Amino acid sequence: MEYLVGAGLGLAVGAFATVVGFDRGRAFYPVVLVVIASYYDLFAVLGGSMPALGIETLGLVAFAAVAVLGFRTNLWWVVAALAAHGIQDLFHASLVDNPGVPPWWPAFCMTFDLAAAAWLAARLIRGRRVSSPGHGVFAAALAAGALFGTSASAAPPASVAQADGHAVAYQVQGQGRPVLVLISGLGDGMASFRDVAPDLAAHATVILYDRAGYGGSGAPAGPRDAAAVARELEALLAASGVPGPYILAGHSIGGLYAEYFAAHHPDAVAGLILEESRPAGFTARCRAAGLSMCVATPAMMTFAPKGAQAEVAALEATVAQVDALAPATGKPVLVLSRAPGPKPFDSLWTQAQSDLAARYPGALHRTAPAGGHYVHRDQRAWFVGEVTAFLATVR
Predict the structure, then answer these.
(1) What's the structural domain count of the chain?
(2) pLDDT per residue over 51-98, tens digit each?
(3) Residue 107 and residue 324: Cα distance in Å, rounded?
(4) Parallel, antiparallel, or unpaired: how do β-strands 166-173 and 159-163 relate?
(5) Would you say 185 and 165 are in contact if contact means Cβ atoms under 8 Å apart?
(6) Residues 253-262 pLDDT 10s
(7) Do 267 and 298 lie in a common domain?
(8) Residue 206: domain span
(9) Are residues 145 and 199 in the same domain?
(10) CB 169 within 8 A of CB 202
(11) Helices vs strands, H then E, count in the chain
C-alpha cells in the first residue's frame, strides 16, 4: 500500500502543479526536494536521537545544495537528486539508525521521489516550462502539506480504555490463543509494530497500544517509571476483555517494562520476548567502559513525545526497580538482538544481550542476520518467523 500511495501522490502533485501552472517556476521542484529531504531530520527529532539528527542534517545539506545548483543552472540536477533520494530511501534503515522514522515511510517516500523525478523529467523533455520563479514556493508548500498529511495520518482505528487515570489507545488484532502483547520502545507508539502486527495476528491474538503521552493516549501524570507503566498495562488488559495469560514482547525500553510486569504478575504472563531490550545494568556498564551516548538525556528529548520525556526522566527509577527484582522463572523467554557491529558500543551491547539471556535460565537467544536496533523493521520476515516459532512452543 505504501508504494501505491507514494507513487500516486507523487504523480498527483506533479499533475496538479502542471495543470494550474505552478511548476512553470524553476523553484517548484527544487523546494520540493528540500522539503522531502528535511523529513528525516524531523523524524530524528521526534525519535529523540541526536546522532541520527546529525547524520540526517548532513544529508539534508547535500540535497539542498543540489537543489540550489539545479535551480540556478539546470533542473536535470533536481531530477537526479530526486531519484537519488528515492534510492537512499530504499537503503536508509541500513545506513542510519533513526528511531523516529515510521515503518512505512521509506517505501512511501521512495515511490513519491521516483514518481516526482519521472514527472519532472517528462516535463523537461517536452520543454514545457518557463524560467520565471512564478508560484514555485507556494506550490512546494502545497506539496509539503500533502506529504505531512500522509506522514501524520492516523493508524487504523483504535479502541480507547481508561487506565491509571488517563485514556489509553489500543488495538486488538487476530483471535484465539496465545495472546501476544507488544510493548514499544522509547519514543514509539503502537505504530512502530504496524507492519508486523497483521502477520503475527495470523498466529495469535495481538494487543498493541500507546503508552501515556504517545499517539492516541492521554498525557502522563506523575512519574513514568516501570511501576506506573505496569499499572497502566494491567488496567488496559482488564479493559480489553482479552483474558490472559499473556506473552509480553518488549522492544528496547519496552523490554524493561515487560520484565517488571512479568515479575509482578507471574500468573498473568506465559512468556517473554525481549527484542533489543535494554538490560537494567547497561547504563552503568556503558559509563564504566568510558563510552558516550549511554543514555538519552532530558535535553535530547525536548521535541520527543511527552510520554518519552517522562520515561527518560524516570529511567533511573525504572532501572532500579527492574534490577532489584528476581527475574520471572519457569517461563519461556526469547531474546532477539541485532547483528554485532564494529564499534565499542556495539560490542558492549552484544555482550549485554547475551547476559540478559543468561538472566533467564533456558532462554533462547537469536541474533538477526543484519539490521539495527529495530529488528522488527529491519528484518521483518526474520522477526515474524522467530516470534511465531516461539509462540508455537508456549502453552
Answers:
(1) 2
(2) 778 888 888 898 899 888 887 778 888 888 888 888 888 778 767 888
(3) 43
(4) antiparallel
(5) no
(6) 999 999 999 9
(7) yes
(8) 159-391
(9) no
(10) no
(11) 15, 8
